[in-house]
Specification:
Elements lengths: L1 E7 L2 E8 L5 E5 L10 H7 L4 E5 L16 H11 L5 E6 L1 H12 L4 E7 L10 H15 L3 H14 L7 H19 L1 H7 L7 H5 L6 E6 L4 H13 L3 E6 L6 H4 L1 H13 L5
Parallel strand pairs: 3-4, 3-5, 5-6, 6-7, 7-8
Antiparallel strand pairs: 1-2, 2-4
Helix pairs in contact: 1-11, 2-3, 4-5, 5-6
């Protein structure tokens, strides 16, 4: 395992590499976590793959934005710094958005996609999601970071209809600090992050690499709808469901997630 920092415009990113193997897998975390959400997955994958993971700008140990940037450009900077020309991209939630953007912008660098509860361009968010966003905004506006963290814990860790058992509670507490960092730096992202603004069907139709869309059956309804949409819209995709699992699939089901990624990469043409 090696941990380094790479320079990007206006800051630096914390990058970790694990394992050995012919094909590279790049893990892109969700928008309320950091690279540590992949700990259980990377430990298994590293036995047969070269695994690269990093903290997105403003998350974990990566610096917050100080000038305009795009997460997808940071992803390519990480790949370049690690000597990775082509990789399977595994994106969780917001990380799935970054992976989709990479596949549209530079398809030659993407062998395949594993998208775990990703968002999609043009989705019409439900009233429940709108209420969540309003509650987070109100808490941050009042300067109550603890309340903003709790709003996110209730939405993304518990999951719609999921029992809050002892095992999941332990995982949830492990994510609380990464949420605090992300929410603390959110104002910088809102000021400086530039959105690629994909066109829903037109750009998705360009993504012809093999893809798997994973979704937990206890995730919030919007993301279950999105998963079904992406699996049916991407030209070469399949849907995989994780029973009784919430939004952060890799956190709750690390072994099953690693098995899914390994099985997927094994079906791809040799590097």
């Amino acid at each position: 395992m090696t941990s380094t920092r790479i320079e990007v415009s206006g800051g630096n990113l914390r990058v970790q590499q694990d394992g050995v193997g012919e094909g590279a897998v790049v893990l892109i975390h969700a928008g309320v976590t950091d690279h540590q959400v992949w700990d259980g997955v990377a430990g298994v994958l590293g036995h047969g793959h070269r695994v690269v993971r990093y903290d997105l700008r403003g998350f974990g140990e990566s610096s917050p934005a100080t000038q305009p940037f795009r997460h997808v450009d940071d992803l390519f900077a990480v790949m370049d710094a690690c000597g990775v020309e082509e990789a399977v991209l595994v994106g969780a939630s917001y990380g799935g958005k970054v992976a989709l953007e990479a596949a549209v912008l530079r398809p030659g660098r993407v062998r395949g996609l594993v998208l775990l509860a990703p968002p999609r361009p043009g989705h019409d968010w439900s009233e429940a999601m709108e209420r969540y966003a309003e509650a987070e905004e109100a808490a941050l506006g009042a300067g109550d970071l603890d309340a903003a963290v709790q709003v996110n814990m209730d939405m993304w860790i518990r999951g719609s209809g999921r029992a809050w058992d002892g095992t999941l509670r332990e995982h949830a507490e492990a994510v609380r600090e990464s949420m605090r960092v992300a929410l603390t730096n959110q104002e910088y992202a809102e000021e400086y992050e530039e959105d690629l603004d994909l066109a829903a069907d037109e750009d998705l139709a360009k993504i012809v690499v093999p893809a798997v869309v994973g979704i937990g059956t206890s995730d919030v309804g919007d993301f279950q709808q999105i998963a079904e949409y992406l699996a049916s819209t991407l030209p070469n995709a399949e849907l995989v469901q994780f029973p009784d699992t919430g939004h952060l699939i890799a956190l709750e089901r690390p072994n099953e997630t690693a098995d899914l990624i390994s099985a997927f990469t094994s079906r791809l043409p040799a590097v």
